[in-house]
Write a structure and sequence with these properties.
Layout: E1 2-4, E2 9-12, E3 36-37, E4 50-52, E5 57-59, E6 63-67, E7 71-87, E8 93-99, E9 111-112, E10 120-135, E11 144-153, E12 168-175, E13 196-198, E14 213-217, E15 223-231, H1 259-266, E16 283-287, H2 289-295, E17 302-308, E18 315-319, E19 324-327, E20 336-340, E21 345-348, E22 350-352, E23 356-360, E24 363-366, E25 370-372
Length: 379
């Protein structure tokens, strides 16, 4: 839910889903999940530009994001309403988004809910997390959130009936640059940095995390595994990797086709993006300089193949505090075929002798470089 421009208390209905390492089986239909008041607290290192004291939250400057700690429901729910009390000056914005995990360590995308009806989760869940984004007005008048109450419910008749796999898509990649600027999740862009931007808030990783990681491969067979740390290149509501019925905007476009590509190639939307700007390239992903130049060894903007790993089934591990060189064969002397960024999520297939892990055809990582990895079969 996004609230704009006037004073008062505002009821907000919002979708919520589960976070954490456990997904609990559905409870009996008679179990009713209890509502709760979310504590507005800055903790965990994934917040930016917000001050909060447990009872109120406000941006420290132009805007910021408060990612609340996970909350365990008393019973599974597939709908949750959020009742927000806030003072919002004209031109300021308060946005509530929620997400959930369908299996251990995996998340659904962040979803913004509407103001009159709770959004439905794809399945009942027990653990939930909320992201609160606050933006000041052009005159710097800041919104103040004074309360956030969540009301979960179980309604199996309202479970979404539309499902569809997220594939691997070929999209046009551009180089971000912008060293020294701050991304949408609060990351300050470093020289030769390693991250990606996608045109939707739904897959924006929290600051310092890689909950949403993409695998990007160039035509030279080099690949990068990097977190989604910014929103762009052109749009902010174009989750083109989702099926049209679940896509936030541009639902008349086929799955896998970015709006910017349709605008550039076919004159879709008059050849303009959601902000009315003339689209001058078909970019569906932005890549930081280090990913673009050093990992993929690209010389100019070009087409790449992108895999949206949070939506892919299978086993995954997390890269530790240091980036890892991906090798073409098990062993430190094998050819360098890519790079997995610090903290990135990587797919896992099997375990080779000497503790090397296969993450794809001709792609191997040392097991010692991962902080989390499930048991794997032998290759």
């Amino acid at each position: 839910m996004t609230i704009r421009g006037r004073w008062g208390g505002f009821p907000v209905l919002a979708l919520v889903a589960l976070l954490g390492s456990t997904v609990t089986a559905c409870a009996a239909e008679s179990d009713t999940p209890a509502p709760w008041n979310a504590p507005l607290i800055v903790e965990g290192g994934d917040d930016r530009g917000v001050t909060a004291n447990g009872e109120t939250a406000r941006p420290t400057a132009g805007g910021g994001t408060l990612v609340l700690a996970p909350h365990e429901l008393t019973a599974p729910a597939n709908q949750i309403a959020a009742d927000v009390t806030a003072a919002i000056p004209p031109g300021a914005v308060v946005m509530v988004e929620l997400r959930g995990a369908r299996e251990p360590g995996r998340w659904t995308e962040w979803l913004e809910a509407g103001p009159r009806a709770p959004a439905a989760l794809p399945e009942p869940t027990r653990l939930v997390q909320i992201r609160l984004t606050l933006s000041a007005a052009p005159d710097r008048a800041a919104p103040v959130v004074r309360g956030l109450r969540l009301i979960p419910q179980r309604n199996d008749d309202q479970l979404p009936r539309i499902t569809g796999p997220v594939g691997t898509y070929r999209v046009f990649a551009t180089r971000i640059g912008l060293v020294g600027n701050t991304t949408a999740n609060g990351h300050v862009v470093a020289p030769r940095d390693h991250f990606a931007a996608l045109p939707s808030r739904r897959t924006l990783s929290s600051h310092g995390s890689s909950d949403y990681t993409v695998q990007v491969c160039a035509d030279n067979d080099r690949c990068a595994w990097v977190p989604v740390s910014d929103i762009g290149p052109w749009n902010t509501t174009d989750d083109y990797w989702n099926v049209p019925q679940l896509r936030q905007s541009w639902r008349d476009l086929p799955q896998g086709l970015p709006q910017s590509q349709a605008a550039f190639r076919d004159g879709y939307n008059g050849g303009r993006d959601q902000f009315g700007r003339r689209v001058t390239n078909p970019a569906g992903v932005d890549l930081a300089d280090g990913t673009f130049w050093d990992t993929l060894r690209l010389r100019d903007n070009q087409w790449v193949t992108v895999d949206y790993l949070w939506a892919r089934p299978g086993l995954f591990g997390l890269v530790g505090a240091q980036p890892l060189t991906v090798r073409g064969e098990p062993g430190d002397d094998a050819p360098d075929v890519g790079r997995a960024a610090e903290g990135a999520m990587v797919p896992l297939q099997c375990r080779e002798p000497d503790e090397w892990l296969r993450i794809g055809p001709g792609q191997f990582l040392p097991a010692s470089g991962l902080t989390q990895a499930p048991p794997l079969p032998a290759c």
